[in-house]
Sequence to fold (408 residues):
Amino acid sequence: MAKRFNLGSLASSAIAFVVMIGIADFFADATYEGARSITGPFLGTLGASATIVAATTGFGEMVGYLLRSVSGVWANNTQRYWLFALVGYSINMLAVPALALADNWAAAAALIAIERAGRALRKPAVETMMSFTAETIGRGWVFGLHTALDQAGATLGPLLVSLVIYLRGDYRSSFATLLISAVLCLVTLTLSRLLYPSPQAFARTGDSQEHTKKLSKPYWIYVAAGALVAAGFADFALISFHCQRRSILSESSVPLLYAVAMGMGAIASLVYGKCLDKLGFSVVLFAVLLGALFAPLAFSNSAWLAVLGSALWGLGKGAQDSVLKAELSRLLPMTSRSSGFGIYSSIFGVGWFAGSLIMGWLYEFSIAAMVAFSVLAQLLALPVFVLAERASHNSKATASPPATHPFD
Fold:
């Protein structure tokens, strides 16, 4: 059995662990989200069209999400969660500053895919380690706090990129500067590994699902709902491409738009997380509904509407990484959490890629049709989420402790 920590109460140690991982992801998101804020325009300077931009970013996401099912099962079988985390973060972080060396869109696309692959390798293992603390300090709060920290980094990264572009007028210098945050991420992660070598010790025993590896019917319904959300959620690269093509914002202002989105996502993650632990499943529906409204504004011809649309996009992204993951953990047996997170992410990625291709193609012919597709796909997810929730209540196999867990 995993060794218990002697660092104060279990709840205090669990919170400290989540915060440490959150700080590592603060620097990680500053790195790759800083890069993502200019990926669309950068690909455009290398000769990529809107379809290529959407397909490139969508393919990168699909690769990243598909590999999560493999890494999730592998992490489940070996339970070497920290190994997957350390290797994955290293690949994830070092691919970003390498974009400074890309001299054509194909090379840049390959690095984007490699960066996503590194994230795929470590993501299920990290989510599993955090889920071990959920029953001690609350599912919503765990994933909400973590998402708020990493999206705070995702806010800082684009601001840093915007400053570098303003001072140097060069995308490549921005990518190179992100090496600093990449190194800080890896240092923080290594320290976390030394302080908390066995996160399994945070898990409370007595879970009715603890000794089963079967993924339930409600889980698969929930996965289908997540795929619909992904299909309608345009990659920010397409939003930034639109703002540049229509001259809605200046070159140095586009990263600021992304910073707004990430800042809103960070705030929303904390609020959504706390509300989920207090109010339950209805928070998921509200968060998805609110996020679905971004497209009509983000793809308008108004700078102010683009800002508002990007803020709603950030709310939707924050919900995906916080309350959607928190509710998913409730449907997963402890012994299959890595594979369950990985499979969910893989199918989510397929939905993202398919939606990206459709929206990129529609953008070339009719922005209005693209917007309609985006909104409709996400709204269709709502009744499927409801179906998953009803199925979970009717299935003894997915019975779990209440969502609200006070601090020890």
